Structures are given as structure tokens and as C-alpha cells.
Amino acid sequence: MAVFTRTTKNLIIKIDEFFDNIDLGILVFREGIKSYLNKDMESFQRHLQKVDTLESNADKLQREIENDMITHSILPQHRAEVAQLIDELDEIIDGVKSTLHEIDIEIPEIPEELNNDIIRLAEASASAAEELVPAARAYFKAPFTVREKLLKVYYFESETDKISFNLKKKIFHESRELDLAHKAHLRYIIHHIENISDLAQKAADLLSGMAIKIVM
Amino acid sequence: MTLFFLTSGLFLGWSLGANDASHVFGAAVGSKMVTFRKAAIIASVFFILGAVIQGSGTSQTLGKLGAVNAIGGSFTLSLAAAITIYMMTKFALPISTTQAIVGAIIGWNLFTGNHTDSSTLTKIVASWVAGPIIGGLFAVLLFILVRKFKRSVKIHLIRFESYIKTGLLVVGAFGSYSLGANNIANVMGVFLPAFNLQNLDLGIITLNSSQQLFLLGGLATATGIITYSRKVMHTVGNNILELSSEAAMIVVLAQALVLFIFSSTALSDFFVRMGLPPIPMVPVSSSQVIVGCILGIGLYKGARNINFKILGEIGLAWVASPVISGVLTFFLLFFMKNIFNINVGHRIDVPGVTVVAPVDQVISNTETDMSGIIKYLLMGIMIAGALAMIYFYLLERKKTMEHRKSEERFWKNLK
Lengths: 216, 415
Hints:
The complex is a heterodimer.
Chain A lengths: L6 H31 L3 H31 L7 H28 L8 H27 L4 H29 L5 H36 L1
Helix pairs in contact in A: 1-2, 1-3, 1-4, 2-3, 3-6, 4-5, 4-6, 5-6
Chain B lengths: L1 H17 L1 H11 L5 H19 L1 H10 L5 H20 L6 H16 L5 H36 L3 H32 L6 E2 L3 E2 L4 E2 L1 H32 L4 H17 L3 H9 L12 H15 L7 H31 L24 E2 H4 L1 H45 L1
Helix pairs in contact in B: 1-5, 1-8, 1-9, 2-3, 2-8, 2-9, 2-10, 3-8, 3-9, 4-7, 4-8, 5-6, 5-13, 6-13, 7-10, 7-12, 8-9, 8-10, 10-12
């Protein structure tokens, strides 16, 4: 019987570990962008390695969680949705990893006057993803609080959109010294950073529906 | 010949296992919280236990309604009820074994010119209405309690579901026990006056004549559960799937409580000792109680889209099942008596007084050695059960090992 086995306890630990990985991944993303903008490449490389490890851990945990839920018939009514939520959260850490790798490979030249704006953009985008994690944790412990926690995700996502819009406008309308290729490259990097909050919003939409279903 | 006469009762038991017993574990199996194999084993074992330990209470009530005093009558009556159930299931109409058998007994009373005890009949019919209502009230009460507990404790969803999973097994066992105690009378009640078997000593316990019959009925029901209830469980489960897992457990628990209340003589005696009126020992329809429970929760949650068609169908079943079964019994008894020249019973009543009927053709142990058959049957089942358990244990172990190996290979290849 499920009560007398350690499967439940182990699965809860694995899910918590998975959320911890996502949380840390977002933190590393934020610090990684700052290191790059401060031209501290050693620190940036360290963050890059850290995010690789976290992403790999998250992948392994994701597979184990899904396996455990299927083999031990855990949460049969919500299994598909929980698996999808875990997948959406994994997409976020995948996005974090790919953004940092894009920066590492392409080494974009960011004009110093844009540094603050890019940091604000990364902060807002990371905050959207960061606020998603407690909401996802709450789904398992206090589902009736999920929706109020998700409000912050939507707020930061819209902030990210605004910052990104203004930043792109600044690049294409005001930075006349930059050539078009440079501008397009910056837009591409901005798009990558902004994408983290979009992924958080996508997961928030799913989580919101899941919370209603479980509370009703 | 005796065994042939029992076949209709055993067939009725089989259909009870295939249909009614499926309701107990339907939600659990349909939602994949519990595997069919586990559900079928628990339902079978606990149904038999309920039938043998506590099945006599409701049988006495059916006996008061009509004491069938010839085995030919018992056979015909059970056959008519079974045919009614089969026909109504075929036309997808909700059917209750209880109502079919009560209708059949009244049909027998009419044919043999016996008096139908109106107070017993009123008690039975009132319980049909009261069963779903009490079930609904229990369900709402339990639902509120579980919700409050869940909200105040802030338990992890996965841990909560694991409790629910275990709870479904425990409640399912209790539900099966209560169903056995309450509904075995439908299957074997009409045969009781016609059988007088010697006590069967099994070492630990001794079974009297009626308990041996209940054991046979229970085994027939268990066969119905194992052979035919998988499909019904999945259908029931999918219909109830809109309910959450905790609501599904509450529905089964509420149903089990209702069935238990209407079949526990000890509880009824306790009521009397407390100065309260006794609880009538009446076989109630498990499927209708379940619908009452679901509706109760639906109403509490403020559901506006209550399916009045289902309510109408239940109302129709309340009237149609006993009427069809009664009419069919009347005609079948006519054919049995006049064409096959089988004794189906005779008039015995003293108006207003209920007596145990003198049975025309009492089957005694010496004539058929039924107890011996039951003893060997039980031994065979126990051996087969033990072998099946070992087989499934080894199968599970093999599956787990293969899964572990495949996981190890996956991560090794990934590296």
C-alpha cells in the first residue's frame, strides 16, 4: 500500500529538488548576465558551467518523476498535467541555458549605455520565472493560493515586455552609431532574455487551470 | 437436481458481482488509482466475508415478505429476477437486484395466493427512498470534513493522494463487506427455507445451513466480479471521473455506511437499547445509493447541471424493476407448474401473522452431501488463490527488475 512505502516520500523529495534546480538556474541566469555585462568572463564561465549542471539535473529528475508517477500509479487524475507542468518548468531552465550559451558563442557587443536596460530586462524576466516556482510549489501544498501567487508572474512578464519594447526602440531609433547587423544581433539577444518570461507565462497559464481544477 | 435448482441463484449472484459490486471499486479502478486485479481480489474476499458473517439480517426481512416453500419456486423466482436484470441491462436501463427480487417474491405470493406482508413491503420500499437520501447526506458530511481537514493541514498533494489510494482500498473492502452483508439476501434469501444443511466445521469456524448457502452465493458473486466486472468498473469509473479522487472515496464510504446500517443487527439492537426505533434490516440498492451520494456532493458544490434524466431513470427503475420481475415470475411459475409439473410452492398464510413456511421439499445434507462439496470447493479455491498470488508476485518482481535495468541502460547510454 502506498502509505507504507517510501515511494511517496521519495517522489515529493524529487519534485522539491526539481524546483530547487529551476530556482537556482534562474538565479544563475541573472548573475550570469550581470557578469557578462561587467565583462567578468571568468565569473560568466563559472555560471555557464553551473547552469549546465542544473539543467542536466533537472532533466534527470524530470524523467524520474514521470517514471515514478507512471510505475507507482501516483496522481492518476492529475498525472498528465503535473508532467506537463514539470516539462514547462524544464523549458525555462533549457531557455536559461541556451541564452547563456548563445551569449557565450556569439559574444554580443553591448554598448555601455544599454547595460542598465539589459540588466533591468534580465531582472524582470528572471523575476517572472522566479515567482512561478513558489506558485508551482503551492499547487502541491496549498492549491487555493496558487492564483494569487501567479499574479506576480503576469506582472513581471508584462514589465519585461515593456522594457524590451523600449529597449528595442532605443536601439533602432536612437542608437544611430550602430549598424543594422549589430542592431539585429542585439534584438536577437534581447529576444532570448525576454523569452524566459514568456516561458514562465506559458507555464503560469497551465498552472492556473490546474489550480482551479484541483480546488473545485 | 438440487445443484440445478441452485443455478438460477448462482447466476443471480454472478450478475450481482458483475454489476453491483463494480460500483464499490468503479471509481478507484476507472481513475486508475487501484488496479483491477487488486480491486477484484479485495471485493471478492470481503463480499464473501460480509455475506457469511452478517448476511442473515436482510434475509429474514425477505423471508417475512414471502417465505418461498418449494425449491422449484425459489429457482423460478431467482430466474425471473436474473432475466429481468439481464433484459434491463441490455436496454441500458438502471437496474437494482434488490428491486427485481422483491418484485419476484411478490409475484410468487400472488401466484400461490399468499398474503404479502404490507408492513414489511412498506419498510422495504421506504428504505429504497431513504437509502439514496441518507447516502447523499453522509456524502456531503464526509465531503465537508475531508475538505476542512485538507485545507487546515496543508498536506502535500502526493501524500494526500497516497492516503486516498490506501483509503480507497480500505473503504472498498468495507463497501464490499457491507454489500455482501446487505445484498446476499437477494441472491440466496429465497433458497433458505428450502435448504437444511448440516453444520460445516472448517476448523476455525463452523458454518450453519444459511451461511453455507451465503458462502456459495458469495463465491458466485466473486466469480462475477473476477470474470465480468472489469468493463463495468471502467464504465462506472469514467462516469464518476468528474469527481475528484477524495470525492470518489467519500462516495464509496457513504454507500458502504448506508449498506452497513441497513444490514447490521448489532447496530439495530444498540438503537433499541438506546430507546430508539430499530433499524429495518432491508436489502437496499447499492447503485441507487451511489447515485444519491454523487448527487449529494453535486448539490453541495452548487452544481446547476444536475442530470434530471438520470433521476428520472432511477424513478423508472424503482417502479419498472419490481413490476417486470413480478409479472415475469408469475408467468414463469405458471409454466413451471403446469407444463413441467414442478412444485413451486403453495398457500401457507395466516393473515396478519408471519410464519416460517413448512417446506415441501427440504434439501437435507444426507441427500446431497452439499457440505462436502462446499468443503472441497473452498480447499480448491484456497490452493488456486495461493498459487495465483505466488505467480503474480513473481510477475511483478520480474517487471520491476526489467524496468530498473532499462533505466540503468538509458542513463549509461546518455553519458
